[in-house]
Amino acid sequence: MKHIKVARTFTRGIAEAEAYVYEKEELTAAKYLINGEAEISENIELFEKAVDAVSKDLSVLAEDSAIFAGHLSIANDIALKEMVLSKIKDEKQNVELAVENAIAELSAMMAGIDDAYMQERAVDILDVGARFMAALQGKEFAGLDHIQKEVIIIADDLTPSDTSSMNFDYVKGFITERGGVTSHVSIIARSLGLPALVGASTILENVKTGDQVLFDAESGDIYINPDQQTRDDLLEKSKADAELKAQIEAKMDLPATTEDGKTLKVYANVGSAEEIKQAMKYKIDGVGLFRTEFLFMDNTDFPSEDEQYNAYKDAVEALKGELIIRTLDIGGDKALPYYEFDVEENPFLGWRAVRMCLEKADIFKTQLKALLRAAVYGPIKIMIPMIISVNEVNQVKELISECKSELKAAGVEYADDVPVGIMIETPAAVMMADALAEVVDFFSIGTNDLTQYVLAVDRGNERIEHLYDSYNPAVLRAINQVIKAANNAGIEVGMCGEFASDANITEVLLGFGMDEYSMAASETPIIKEKIRNLNYAKAQELAEKVLTCSTTEEVYQLLGIE
Amino acid sequence: MVETTIYVRNKTGLHLRPATELSQLCSKMDSDIKIIFGEKVINPKSVLMLMGAGIKQGSKLEIQVEGPNEAEHLQEIIDAIEGGFGEEMIPLEDIVKE
After folding, report:
1. Domain with B77 in it: what CATH number?
2. A465 and A367 within one domain
3. Does A341 touch chain B if contact means CB atoms closer than 8 Å?
4. Mind telling me how many Å the CA of A109 is from chain B's nearest CA?
5. Which of A114, A136, A158 is the last residue of a domain?
6. Residues A182 and A312 in one domain
7. Which end of chain A has fewer surrounding CB within 10 Å, N or C?
8. Is the same domain home to A131 and A148?
9. Within this chain, do residues A178 and A324 fall inside the same structural domain, yes or no?
């Protein structure tokens, strides 16, 4: 058994299947020099026919893919054409050699630019080049469409043409040596919810076709020809989870009502309308966190108002329930392929989320207008991340009124009564919770960031990772303080961090007085079942006791956690 | 032939979308157009060459246009670049004083 670990991961799930090492069949150009006018015009004609053939294929693919629309414009680019024609006419190269050379020069030019986004576009040019070569040689463009059994694709890198030809009934995941966050393979894996790892720099030398590959996309662990123990452990874990889940899911139609009759909202965290449709399978009551980042990240430019409006409208129409949409939470460590952020020494304490939005008011207003318009079609709530002051809330509200008057003046339909709430993720927001509760319509506690900021612990720092613990009494007291402030002001309070899906803390949160739990949709049946077996009066007693604990160990002991 | 010197002032320079817009505009013109950027001579009808040139905010470009409607076409190109492709712009003084 071999074990490889990838540090940066971006999807989750466990996949096991035979490896399929994908080596692109490199079509080599026939290379020779030509002579005389007749041969020259013959080769030019061959090139023009190839452009037509490639354009015809790409036009079909381009209908629903911005990536292939880009490829279509590369195939018809005037510079590419001039380079090929000059190589045929002046340098007397035959058409295949001329195309190969022109593509190589253009992609080298693109790869040489000091800009990660442009460098990755070199792959697009090579991809178009491969199409040309297939067309010139009268071959089918070779893809991955012939695969007929379950596999994990192992490759140096995957192009859009590769992934578009995959049958996802058989492809269980992919692992590539190259590729970054803005590469096609990452974007596609995320949008399909497929386990995938990129940047596995030694995978090709360690795996051959037919090897058994088992990997955990979340932890980054890859096992090649895993021994029985490792397989059993990992698969057992996922199987046991699956069985328990099946039992619980049988009851997921039932509401989350405690024994003594208090009904709570159990919501899902999602990133797109597509994910909402998936989440509906779990009979979710609503969405407590709709992340809008992916709309911005999987894009070539800031999405327009209409593009966003359509996305939010689709989402709320698909859900038929309450939809809490978080405004752009980007900057710091989350980048955009088309916008350069300054490098900061402390990204988590830096220019991100609402701080960026308030400064880039035009970008923020585009999003707010799209939200106000989409709210006509269903119960949308707007949620602002990273708030530290009442001042920020007032500025956001002012922008929202500006947006409303502008929409009104333009005669565009919008909803006037959209609730505005905030994420509680900073110690400042905790301390000001009573004042903030007076100016907003709801709170949602983001425990991932809140834990990090309350304890001043960077989760990415391995040396102090053990200090990162949401069970720390400091974090629990902060959560309680926020919930009490919300209860006193009569506004709803929820939680959309990972802590909300932890069944060991459900009772304490109930006892504090929390109204809504939001988590990955697949976790909702488990938490609902947990709540149905709880008693609110007893939970309040437990919550009181937890608040008297002075160490994390005491909390664990009280809750019976080992 | 008519020519002019211009500075790129929009935030992303001639990144994907601005380069696409400019090349689409130039492709509609029956003039011979050259953009000279440092030592590079670029045909702006090609989006690949425009992107590949690595033109950033603050870059100085020389534009040459030759053809029956050269003056009109040059003005359209100037308007497009000065318009900033709908992006945030920096003031000219900030570039020239450097």
Report:
1. 3.30.1340.10
2. yes
3. no
4. 6
5. A136
6. no
7. C
8. no
9. no
- Note whether B43 contacts A79, CB cutoff 8 Å: yes
Decide if B38 touches A, using CB distance below 8 A.
Answer: no
Quick check: is A119 in a domain?
yes
Query: The domain that contains A17 carries what CATH number?
Result: 3.50.30.10
Question: How many structural domains is chain A composed of?
Answer: 3
Residue A244, in any domain of the structure: no
A458: domain range? 253-559
Among B46, A117, B24, smallest CA distance to B35 is for B46
Three state DSSP letters for A205-273: HHCCCCCEEEEECCCCEEEECCCHHHHHHHHHHHHHHHHHHHHHHCCCCCCEECCCCCEEEEEEEECCH
Tokens of A239: 């199987």
Residues from chain B contacting residue A300 (CB–CB below 8 Å) = 16-17
- Tell me if residue B73 is catalytic: no
Residue A415: which of A494, A323, A492 has the closest Cα?
Answer: A323
**Residue with tokens 């003594």, as numbered in its chain:** A260
Write down which residue in A103, A136, A169 finishes a domain: A136
Residues from chain A that touch B54, judged by Cβ atoms under 8 A, are 113-115, 118
Q: What is the largest CA-CA distance in chain A?
A: 95
Q: Give the whole-angstrom CA distance, residue B6 versus residue A338.
A: 23
Q: Are A423 and A505 within one domain?
A: yes
Same domain, A115 and A203: no
Domain harbouring A442, CATH code: 3.20.20.60
Range(s) of the domain holding residue B54 = 2-96
Residue A246 lies in a domain: no
Q: How far is B92 from chain A (nearest CA, A)?
A: 21
Give, for A89, the enclosing helix (H) or strand (E): helix A78-89
User: What are the distances in angstroms from CA A24 to CA A97, A138, A235, B30?
Assistant: 19, 17, 32, 41
Strands A492-495 and A2-5 come out as unpaired
* B7-52 pLDDT, tens digit each: 999 887 888 778 888 998 999 999 999 999 988 899 999 988 898 8
A106 touches chain B (CB under 8 A): yes
Q: How many CA atoms lie within 13 A of A186 on its CB side?
A: 19
Is residue A31 domain-resident?
no
Same domain, yes or no: A211 and A293: no
Residues A366 and A442 both lie in one domain? yes
ipTM confidence score: 0.78
| Total tally of structural domains belonging to chain B | 1
pLDDT tens for each residue of chain A, 562 residues long: 889 888 777 677 789 999 999 887 778 888 899 988 999 999 999 999 999 999 998 888 777 666 777 888 899 999 999 999 999 999 999 999 999 999 999 998 888 887 777 777 888 898 899 899 999 998 877 667 677 789 999 998 887 668 777 778 889 999 998 865 446 677 677 667 688 998 888 899 999 999 999 998 877 899 999 999 999 888 887 777 678 767 887 888 899 999 999 999 999 988 888 888 888 888 898 999 999 987 887 777 889 999 999 999 999 999 989 999 999 998 866 777 777 778 788 888 999 999 999 999 999 999 999 999 999 999 999 999 999 999 999 999 999 999 999 999 999 999 999 999 999 999 999 999 999 999 999 999 999 899 999 999 986 666 787 798 999 999 999 999 999 999 999 999 999 977 898 889 999 999 999 999 998 887 888 899 999 999 999 999 999 999 999 999 999 999 988 7
The yes-or-no answer on residue A71 being catalytic is no
